[in-house]
Amino acid sequence: MKSMRILIVTLLLLGQSAFAGEEAAAGPTLYERLGSWDGIDQIVGDTIAYHVENEAIAHYFEDVDLEKLQGHVTAFFAAGTGGPNQYEGRDMTSTHAAMNMSEADFDAAVADVLKAVKANGKDESVQAEVKAILYSLKPAVMGTTGS
Fold first, then answer.
1. Is 59 part of a structural domain of the chain?
2. Has residue 147 been placed in a domain?
3. Would you place residue 4 in the very low, low, confident or very high pLDDT band (cuts 50, 70, 90)?
């Protein structure tokens, strides 16, 4: 549970604007810039649709309840980008442990997320922040860090 708290704190820190100073503190959070809950839910839904169509990683989504997955991922993403809700699901390491993802699989998944963020009209700065968050999660997803 301690690693989940560390992960959430990391996500919250990364969810802050890349710009320092008062302007960043006064500006909208990444959560807000992504469209709050509804915007994030749309991005997550689009990402899952891309994953299912992506030949490199589609096999990970066979026999998965995609609606349930979308709910969990939306809650995680919302909490990690500065949203008001607390994520109460499983940590990244235990969630992905049995998947044995390759580097190429991870990169394909990240590309799908960024494609969804861009398709939902988010600018390059938002895309860059999302990319930074995703790569900060790589050790946990790839199982190269403790849970």
1. yes
2. no
3. very low
On whether the pTM is more than 0.90, the answer is no
Read off the pLDDT of residues 93-132 as tens digits, 9 standing for 90 and up: 888 877 888 999 999 999 999 999 999 999 999 999 999 9
Residue 144: CB atoms within 10 A of its CB come to: 9
Contact 46, 59 (CB under 8 A): no
Domains in the chain: how many in total? Answer: 1
Q: Which contiguous run of DSSP H or E holds residue 43?
A: helix 36-53
57 Cβ contact list (under 8 Å, min separation 6) = 51, 105, 108, 109, 112
Question: DSSP secondary-structure letter at 62?
Answer: T
**Backbone region of residue 139 per phi and psi (left: phi > 0; alpha: psi in -120 to 50; beta: other values):** alpha
Helical segments of 97-144, H only: 103-119, 124-136, 138-142
